[in-house]
């Protein structure tokens, strides 16, 4: 078994958190431009759409700082499971991203699971 130095592990976890922070900050900003359009496009009630937007913004802040990052990761995992289920069962999307497939959601699910399992790493404000 390969034993990596703590610095390398913490650096990788920080990079994973940075990618998640950027992804969810971007999603939050895009949806904030027109929450009602987001709700309509995804077939959601507007209050549920607002909850998702706020959760994505909170997850971005959590991943960026490391504060409550494991809890944010668990929430993101649930959200990504739900959106993947929507892709498969409601929207009947194909797997391919250019056709609106769920690969991006699955990637975010896997990255969030890394933080959920291993924690935010040493380069974090951890609580």
Taking the alpha carbons of the first and last residues, their distance comes to: 30 Å
* Major sheet details: none
Q: H/E series, N to C?
A: HHHHH
Report the uncertain regions. none
Number of strands: 0
Number of H- or I-type helical stretches? 5
Integer average pLDDT: 90
Structural domain tally: 1
Helix content: over 70%
Q: Indicate the multimeric state.
A: single chain
Shape: globular
Summarize the structure.
The chain has 127 residues and is mainly α.
Task: Tell me the layout of helices and strands.
Blueprint: H1 6-33, H2 35-42, H3 46-65, H4 69-90, H5 103-118
Helix pairs in contact: 1-3, 1-5, 2-3, 3-4, 4-5
What does this structure look like?
It is a single chain. This protein is mainly alpha-helical. The radius of gyration is 16 Å and the shape is globular. The protein has one domain (18-118). The chain is built from five helices and no strands.
Q: Which features characterize this protein?
A:
127 residues; mainly alpha; 5 helices
């Amino acid at each position: 078994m390969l034993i990596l130095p703590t610095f390398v592990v913490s650096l990788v976890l920080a990079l994973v958190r940075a990618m998640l922070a950027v992804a969810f900050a971007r999603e939050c900003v895009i949806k904030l431009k027109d929450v009602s359009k987001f709700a309509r496009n995804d077939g959601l009630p507007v209050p549920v759409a607002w909850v998702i937007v706020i959760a994505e913004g909170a997850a971005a802040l959590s991943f960026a700082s490391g504060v409550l990052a494991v809890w944010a990761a668990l929430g993101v995992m649930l959200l990504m499971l739900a959106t993947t289920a929507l892709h498969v069962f409601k929207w009947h999307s194909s797997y391919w991203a250019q056709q609106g497939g769920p690969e991006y959601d699955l990637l975010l699910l896997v990255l969030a699971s890394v933080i959920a399992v291993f924690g935010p790493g040493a380069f974090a404000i951890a609580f």
